[in-house]
Amino acid sequence: MIDGAKTLLEVRGLRASRGGREILRGVHLDVAAGERVVVLGANGSGKTTLLRAIAGLDAVEVGEIRAQGVGFVLQQGALFPHLSVLQNTLLALRVVKGMSHEDAMRAAKAALARVAIERFDAMPHELSGGQQQRVAIARALALEPRVLLLDEPTSALDPAATKDIEETLRALSAAGIAILIVTHDMPFAASVATRTVTLRDGVV
Amino acid sequence: MTARARLAILVWFAALAWAFASGIARAADDAPVLRWGADPSGGAPFAFFDPDDPDHVIGFEVDIMAELARRLGRKPELVRADWLALVDALQAGRCDVIMNGFEITAERAEVARFSVPYFRFAQQIVVRTTDAASAKGRVHGLADLAGKRVAVLNGSQSIEALKGAGFADDSIVQYDDSLAPYTEVRLGRADAAVAESIIAAYYASADPELALVPETFAPGNYAAVTRTADRELGESIDRALREMQSDGALGEILARWGLLDETQAELGTKPGRPQQVLASARGKRSGGLDAVRAVAPAVLEGAGVTIALTVIAMPLATAAGLFLALGRISPRASLRRASLAYVSVMRGTPLLVQIFLVYFSLPPLGQWIFAASPGFVQSALALVGGAGFLTLPPLFVGALCLAANYAAYEAEVHRAGIEAVPRIQWDAARALGLSRAQAIRHVIVPQGVRIALPAIVNDLNSLIKDSCLVSVIGVTDLLSVCLGIGKSRFDVPEMLAIAAALYLVISIAGDVFGAWLERRLRARGFGAVEGHAKGAHP
Q1: Is B538 close to A140, i.e. CB distance below 8 A?
Q2: Which of A79, B117, B127, B386 shows its CA 20 to 30 Å from the CA of B519?
C-alpha cells in the first residue's frame, strides 16, 4: 500500500456462498487511491463473486464493505448492443443521475476522451474487443467512481489491445482512482499491478 | 420519436377510428332506421350478394323488407350476422327484426315473437338425375330414401321433418351452407338432399345433373322475428304484412322472384300485377372479363377489411403482449398470476367463441352498466350512445377480439425474447445504478423485442388468416365476401381460389414488412447480442 494514500475500498470479513457452497470465507481487502490491485485465483475461487459483492449486485450475507462510488466493468464490457457508443455512456447519466441532455453529453464525451474513443456513433458490434472494453470503462467512468472494478478486462484481447487497456488503467490510477482487477492473464497482471493478492480457499 | 414513427402511430389511430366509425355513419339520416338481420352468405334467393354486382345484397326478402319499412315510415338497414347467430344479434339489440327464412317453430316462439307468415314452403327432395331416371333407384318420395344418406342445411326445418319421418341421426348429414348439400349429391357423397322447396328450386333446377322430386312434404311458414318485449314493432309489422298480402304487393314481389306458387294463397297472399321473372332469380350470371369487373370491387373491399383488421389488431396485440410478458416475469406474485391466467384463458379457448361471446354480451352489458349508473354518469354516457354505448361496430369489436387473443400469444413470444437477453445485461444495467424498471425499459425490452421479432412476424402471418373468423359477427372480410359471391354465382371453388390468392398476397406483404423491420433493427446492433451471450459468472 502506498503510504499516506487514502483507502477508498475496505472489505472486512466478507463471506458469501453460491449454490449451497461457501465460496468466500472471510475476505479482508483494502485498496487505496492510485493502487491497481490484481486478484488472482483458480477458476471458481470466488474472484467474480467478490467483485459482484463489492459492486452491490449480490447482497452481502456476512461481513462489511465500505466503498466510495464503485464502477464495475463486467466481462467483455457487457455493452448494451442496441445502443451506440455515446448512448451507452449517456444512459445512466440521463436515467440514473437525471442530468440534462447537454450536461450528460459533456460528461459522456469527456469520459470517452479519457479512454481515447472517438467513434461516438458506432454500434458496439462495429468495434474491436479492445475498443468495446474501453467504452465499457468510459461508461463506468462517466458516473465519476472513486473505485473501479474490472472483471477479466483482457480476456480475448490481442497484446496491442491489452497494452492499450493497461495504459488507460495507469492513467486512471494516476488520477487517484482505486482499481481492483480480476484476471487470469498472468503477463498482464504482472505488468499492470501495483500489488497482487491471491484468493485461495475463500480467503486472501 | 422520429417523424416516421409519429406518422405510423397517426395512421394506426386513423385506422382504428375508421373501424369505429364504420358502423355508426348512419346517424345523420332523417328517417328512423329499421335494422333487420340477415345472413347474405346464406345464399339465394332470400338475401344474397348480387352475382353481377356483389357490392349489393338482393333477394326476395330484401324487397319485402324495403316495402315493409316504407309502410312503417322507416329506412331499412341490413345488419349482417351468421345465420345461426341472428337470434343472438336480435336479443343483443344489434337489429330490431330478422327476416331470413326463419321457420315458425314452437321452440323459437318461446324466445322471440313471430310475425304473420310471409311465405309458405315445403320440403323437397333433390337427387341425381341418373337416380331419378333409372327404374331401379327411382325416388318418388321420402319413403324411397330409407337407409340412404340425406344432406341437409344445418339448423333448418328439414332436419325435424326427416326425424319426424323416422330417419336416424346418422343418416342425416348437416352442412353449414345451402349450396353444399347439392354439391354433395352431385359428387355422390350423399344420395339425396332435402331442403325447402324454395332453395331446391333455386339451386337444383338450373343443374342438369340434379333432379327435383315433384312431391313435397312437411310444409311450413317463414315469418319475421322480433323481440318478445318489442310488442309494438311486432304488431305494426303484422299489420303491414297483412296489408301487403291483401293489396297484392307481396304477391308482386314473390312473382318477380318466380316464387308465387299456388300454396301462397293459403296464407292470404293475393297475386299482384304480372311480373317478369328476374334473371337473378334463376341464377343467371355474367362470365369472363365482365365477371371479373363485376366481382372485383366487392372482393377488393373485403381484402381492405382483412388488411384493416390486421393493421389494427397486430400492433395492439404486440403492445399488450409486452405488458403481459412483463407481468409474467414480475416480482409481484399477484401480477404473475393475473398475467398467466389471461394468457391461459385466451390461448386455451377458441378465438371463434371469444369473438361470439364478446360481440353478443357487450350490448346487454352496456345496458346493465347504464341502468346501474348514477345520473351524472348516465348523462355522460348519453353523449356516446346512452344505454347502447357498448353496442360497438362489428369491425371494431372484431379487431379488438383479434388483438386480445393474439396478445396472449405475443405475451409468450415477448417473454421468450426477454428471457433470451443475456443475464449479464441485467448486471451491467444494475451496476450502472439503473432500477429494475429502468433496466427493463432501457436495456432489456429493446433487446428482447429484437429477439422476438421473427416470431412476431410469424404470428402476424397467422393473424391475417385468423381474421376471417370475425365474419361470424357480420364483418364482411375477404373470405366471407368471396364465399357469399361464390354461392350467389354458383361457383364457390373459383371464388375460394381467388380468396386464397389474395390472402397469399397480403401475407407475403406482411413477410416483406417483417423482413424490412428485422433488417433495420439488425443494422441497429441486433447482431451484437450473440456476442454477449456468454454467462457473466460461475
Answers
A1: no
A2: A79
pTM attached to this predicted model: 0.78
Look at A57 and B427 and tell me if their CB atoms are within 8 Å.
yes
- Structural domain contains residue B249: no
Rounded to a whole number, what is the distance in Å from the CA of A3 to chain B's nearest CA? 31
Could you tell me if residue B233 is inside a domain?
no
* Domain region containing B208: 120-220
- Answer yes or no: do A81 and B427 touch at CB < 8 A: no
Which of B432, B440, B447, B534 would you mutate first to test chain A, the one with the most A CBs within 10 A? B432
Give me Rg for the CA atoms of chain A: 17
Cα dihedral B138, B143, B146, B149 sign: positive
CA B404 to CA B402: how far, in whole Å?
6
pLDDT digits (tens, 9 = 90+) for A78-137: 999 999 999 999 999 999 999 999 999 999 999 999 999 999 999 999 999 999 999 999
Query: Which of the listed residues B220, B247, B272 is the one where a domain comes to its end?
Result: B220
Q: Would A117 be classed as within a structural domain? A: yes
The ipTM of this complex is 0.93
C-alpha cell belonging to residue B319: 403492445
Q: Which of A113, A144, A175 is the last residue of a domain?
A: A144
Q: Tell me, what CATH number does B510's domain have?
A: 1.10.3720.10
Which of residues A129, A144, A159 is at a domain's end? A144
Give the whole-angstrom CA distance, residue A125 versus residue A157. Answer: 15
Residue in A72, A82, A123 closest to B431 by CB:
A72
Beta bridge partners of B152: B174
Interface check for B529 against chain A (CB to CB < 8 A): the answer is yes
Instruction: Please count the helices (runs of H) and the strands (runs of E) in chain B.
Output: 20, 10
**In a shared domain, residues A129 and A157:** no
